[in-house]
Amino acid sequence: MPATRSTTAAKIGMAFAVAVPAVIMRLLGVHVGPEVEVVVFGAAVVATAFLLAWAAEAAQLDISGSLATAVLALIAVLPEYAVDLYFSYSAGSDPSRAQFAAANMTGSNRLLIGIGWPLVAFVAFAAYKRRRSNGEADTDESVSADEVRMAPVRRIELGFLAIASAYAFTVPFTHTLAVYDSVVLLSLFGLYLWRVAKEEQTEPELIGVSAALGELPQRQRRIVVSSLFLAAAAIVLASAEPFANGLVGTGARLGVDQFLLVQWLAPLASEAPELIVACLFAWRLRAGDALGTLLSSKVNQWTLLVGSLPLAYLAGGGSHGLQLDARQTEEFFLTSAQALLALAVVIDLRFNRREAIALLALFVLQFPFPSTTVRMAFSAAYMIGAIGILVRRRRQIPVVARSLWPTRSSKAPIETTTR
């Protein structure tokens, strides 16, 4: 149900109001303690992420459904990209910053799967239970009491995620994110956009602020949405540097591991709006769309984000490629292993309660055990589990592979066959 125009204006105004202190401080060159910078500029990052998410959802009315999902996922994580690219850029002149680029990238990727996917599933199961307890009729085949199902079109994301995940395993062996990695991964991202653009346009179901924006006349809607994109992008780009520096400074001042602070706090701030939007979709029993959006985000992160880091490093004055030390290599390998398991879990377009609990548990249990041995054991557990699942579901592999090439009509309803 769309919000009223006054409510919509109030929410958009509130988001801008939260970002105003950061803009003023940046324009006036005001410098405060790192803890204050984290709060002020972090709040601006979160606020602009909401603005970007609302605008991107409304933009679905003007572009094809699958491409809209890809663009939504890309724009919604722009704040995260800005922070990570700043760390890579600054590492060109200060090599000690390279660790933070790797930290932010691996943290955001693992957070999306380890927290985001299970959270969407649990919200969908709760919404389904509420609907049944109220005696409401089943109207959406994407959710049952124990399972979330995605439409066959999501095999496109799965196919590109498979290729990106396979390639990602080469990085820990070279200990470098090089220019040739950028060429491969950015080309893969370009192919992904080309592929999803071939899908048929569908009418999106918008909620809240995005629904109110969608009800505007086409010309007015496009002007408003474009203005939101430009304003939010400008704010987040202005906030990325002080927010990133504030995180590092706060860690140093409080004696907190700076790597871990950048790895988890920055992605949590930048991805919070995206997770909230996905949960709203799940609560409305559009869990297939919600999970599909997060899946598209994973493809974006694993191709565009990772592929952009070496280029930002070179632009900042670095040479050759972004070097990964032992800790960063370990983190990259663990992230790659988690991506492989996630792919295996949803390769049949289904995500059930046990799988959600397993992904969440494996993610949470990593924190009490920071040693290399234990974390490599988690990597091995991810990979063994992924291989076992892929062997059992091997018939799905050629189906996913065929989805990489467009057909005359790849649009199809939710699949309801058993595993």
Condensed summary:
The chain is mainly α and 419 residues long. The protein has 16 helices and 4 strands.
CATH class: Mainly Alpha
| Backbone CA Rg | 21 Å
- Reading side by side through the largest sheet, how are the strands ordered? 1-4
CATH level-3 fold name: A middle domain of Talin 1
Number of helices: 16
- Strand count, sense and closure of the main sheet? 2 strands, antiparallel
Order of helices and strands: HHHHHEHHEHHHHHEHEHHH
Describe this structure in words.
This protein is an all-alpha fold. It has one domain (5-402): NCX, central ion-binding region (A middle domain of Talin 1, Up-down Bundle), CATH 1.20.1420. It contains 16 helices and four strands. The strands form two sheets. The protein has a two-stranded antiparallel ribbon. Strands 2-3 form a two-stranded antiparallel sheet. Helix 1 (5-28) runs antiparallel to helix 2 (34-58) and helix 4 (78-91) packs antiparallel against helix 5. The chain is globular. Residues 409-419 have low confidence and may be disordered.
Keywords:
mainly alpha; 4 strands; 2% strand; two-stranded antiparallel ribbon; disordered C terminus; 419 residues; A middle domain of Talin 1
